[in-house]
Design brief:
Its main location: membrane. It holds the Pfam family DoxX. The chain is mainly alpha-helical and 118 residues long. The chain has one domain. It has helices at 5-23, 25-29, 39-57, 63-76, 78-86, 96-114. Helix 1 (5-23) runs antiparallel to helix 3 and helix 3 runs antiparallel to helix 4 (63-76).
Length: 118
């Protein structure tokens, strides 16, 4: 299997991020907006999804599905990025400009995943 390095990088980043949901759940639970019920379950599901999608991204017969799954996941977690911008406790004390830059970063990540949908 001869995959481009950027595909391996993407898969690696999602797998590591997913594992981190289980290593440091409090960090992720803290940024889930209160409108969403059962933040522990949301954290577990999103972490498992990141790991699974990262693995599936490396398999030729599941790559397109995984890329679309990552796009859906990135859209689904966008409210957490907005919540971090709006809520001091969820922002981890990061400067507002960094939190604001995270918003368009989602578009870049979606575009990156989109490259593997065809």
């Amino acid at each position: 299997m001869n995959l481009p390095w950027h595909l391996y990088l993407m898969a690696f980043l999602y797998i590591i991020a997913g594992i981190n949901h289980f290593r440091s759940p409090g960090m992720y639970i803290r940024i889930i907006p209160p409108a969403f019920k059962n933040p522990k379950l949301i954290n577990t599901l999103s972490g498992a999804a990141e790991i699974l999608l990262g693995i599936l991204l490396t398999l030729p017969f599941t790559r397109k599905f995984a890329a679309w799954g990552i796009i859906v996941l990135l859209i689904a977690i966008f409210p957490a990025n907005l919540f971090m911008l709006q809520n001091k406790k969820a922002s981890f004390g990061l400067p507002k400009w960094i939190l604001f830059l995270r918003l368009p970063l989602q578009i870049v990540l979606i575009y990156w995943a989109y490259q593997y949908t065809f």
